[in-house]
Write a structure and sequence with these properties.
mainly alpha; single chain
């Protein structure tokens, strides 16, 4: 198929990353248990040696199932990382708060996640992935949420100063 923006080499790398993802999930049998496809289909997604499977790639819902399986073990699916690299970026995992964290630490983590989301939105707009109208529609609620988060965090920190002075 001509005119595709991905190269043969990039698609081969995606197949190899799919293979590593399936391996990370315990192999084809284990991976098949957490997805809607069987072991042979998972094998096809990673097959780089048979021309018949050249254009057989893992669907996004199957990848999502495997990503969640990897995440449960504290790992990141290699196929997700390969897709991020292909898009010109990198996958950065947002740390999940631990149960022993204080309310303030959880609040800080929430602010961080909102800021990361806002940063991604701005990057998308700058890369012209979003029109100005789309950017405005998505950015205004996020900006409001970030401002509210910072206001609440500021108020909590001010209370700490007041309590320390007493």
């Amino acid at each position: 198929m001509s005119g595709r923006p991905t190269s043969d080499a990039a698609r081969r790398q995606l197949k190899l990353a799919a293979q590593r993802t399936v391996q990370m999930c315990g192999g084809q049998d284990s991976a098949a248990m957490v997805t809607r496809v069987g072991r042979n289909t998972l094998s096809d997604y990673a097959n780089t040696g048979n021309e018949r499977h050249k254009d057989s790639h893992m669907p996004v819902d199957v990848l999502a199932d495997l990503m969640l399986d990897c995440r449960d073990r504290g790992e990141v699916a290699p196929l997700l990382m390969a897709l991020c690299e292909l898009a010109g970026g990198t996958f950065v995992r947002v740390p999940e708060p631990e149960r022993s964290n204080t309310a303030q630490q959880l609040e800080l983590a929430a602010v961080g996640r909102r800021l990361w989301s806002m940063s991604s939105l701005i990057s998308g707009h700058l890369a012209a992935d979003l029109s100005t109208a789309e950017f405005k529609d998505q950015a205004l609620p996020q900006i409001t949420a970030v401002m509210n988060d910072f206001a609440a965090l500021r108020q909590d920190l001010m209370k700490i100063d007041a309590e320390a002075a007493e």
